[in-house]
Amino acid sequence: GEDVEQSLFLSVREGDSSVINCTYTDSSSTYLYWYKQEPGAGLQLLTYIFSNMDMKQDQRLTVLLNKKDKHLSLRIADTQTGDSAIYFCAEDRYGNNRLAFGKGNQVVVIP
Amino acid sequence: KAGVTQTPRYLIKTRGQQVTLSCSPISGHRSVSWYQQTPGQGLQFLFEYFSETQRNKGNFPGRFSGRQFSNSRSEMNVSTLELGDSALYLCASSLGLEDTGELFFGEGSRLTVL
Questions:
Q1: Does pLDDT of A1 surpass 50?
Q2: A96 to chain B: which residues are within 8 Å by CB?
Q3: pLDDT of B12-38, one tens digit each?
Q4: How many beta carbons lie within 10 A of that of residue B5, not counting itself?
């Protein structure tokens, strides 16, 4: 099947904003998710957005959803060194207990 | 409350052997999903169990199997190991209801096949 697409690498200076983009595949997906994976760890859910919303803000995180283009983005304001990780977008293409993940986007925060 | 616990964290096997990985979900969670993570293929869904029944299955060969016990703990088994089975195997638990589908992941079991 089609893959959820993400760009691979982003470096950002501490204090700047980071934007990570994702193109998902199924317009009927109900929820879209952003997960974070730190080295040697499992995945941690950062935030999710319901498909009938355009935007969701949660503290330093802002999720934008363009359903027409199937484009999802995550903006991290005031990026900190603890934000260095791999970020995965995911969609519940097959149901909410079977997610389809992108390949991930590695974010490196430079002090 | 305790998170998702996976054991073992690391293991090394040789081709042809079999391996069993264990996952203890968060207390009260009835759904356990398994994912394989490799650098080339990323995160791929293996299967999901809910109340001891396999509810969803990904596109993996029959060498990959799993089960869930009455206490919601789950095991997955890979038989006749191949080099390409080297991966991080992640388990995730959830309530299993039709809601936001938040998955809570364990730290994974890293399998190396020699």
A1: no
A2: 94, 98-101
A3: 999 999 999 999 999 999 999 999 999
A4: 16
